[in-house]
Amino acid sequence: MSPRRRDPQLAARRREVLVKAGYAEILEKGIDGLTLDSVVARAHSSKGGALYYFPTKDDLLFAILDWLLGQVSRTLDDVVRAQESPRGRLVAELEVLFHSAEVNRKLYLVLFDYLRMGVRSGRFRSLLASFLESCRRRDMTIIEDGVKSQQFRRVNAESAAVTIRALVDGYCLQWLLDPDAAPLETYRDRCRAVLGAYLLR
Predict the structure, then answer these.
(1) Domain 1-55: which topology?
(2) Tally of CA atoms within 13 A in the half-sphere of 78 that contains its CB
């Protein structure tokens, strides 16, 4: 009798179910509250199946972060590609980054949990740094195209890309911690105004 062959597509689907269940657990309980048992129960999987894909909790947490950052990157790439002008691309990117109060709150609460891990773990820090680098490259391309087409004033594209990320994350952090619960749109508009003053001719 020949051994059973693994179905890679089935394996990928099972793995993704566990990753999504893990993400849902982090949203509900935070990273410290996540356990393999709770993920298995949410995914309607088996402990043996989960351990096959993720031998440790850190392996599962890494896969969740990798999946989440991949989702964000693909969304940003898609909306940027859909716009023709550099200015339109930047506006579309900001709309995604300040999408809605519910989406932003979930995303940043999870990311802040992971940032704590990234400070202490080279593996997680490397993944987060790679994501930030992809954001910088995307924004540098937008800025360079905007300068060439004279939609933006002549600025250093690398510095501008770092500034965009700092403004977005800084405004989102302030919004999360705002005791007066100002709408997310208020912070989006502030970010737009600062970028407009910095970039527009």
Answers:
(1) Arc Repressor Mutant, subunit A (1.10.10)
(2) 7
Nearest of 24, 59, 124 to residue 50 by alpha carbon: 59
Backbone φ/ψ region at 191: left (φ over 0), alpha (ψ -120 to 50), beta: alpha
Residue type, 154: R
d(CA 189, CA 169): 14
- Taking residue 92's Cβ as centre, other Cβ atoms within 10 Å add up to 18
With b for 16 or more beta-carbon neighbours within 10 A and e for fewer, the 93-125 pattern comes to bbeebbeeeeebeebbebbebbeebbeebeebe
Residue 190: is its pLDDT beyond 90? yes
Ordered by start, the domain boundaries in the chain are: 1-55, 57-199
Structure tokens at 91: 């506006």
The reported pLDDT for the residue numbered 2 is 44
57-199 adopts what CATH topology? Answer: Tetracycline Repressor; domain 2 (1.10.357)
Q: Name the percent of the chain lying above pLDDT 70.
A: 97
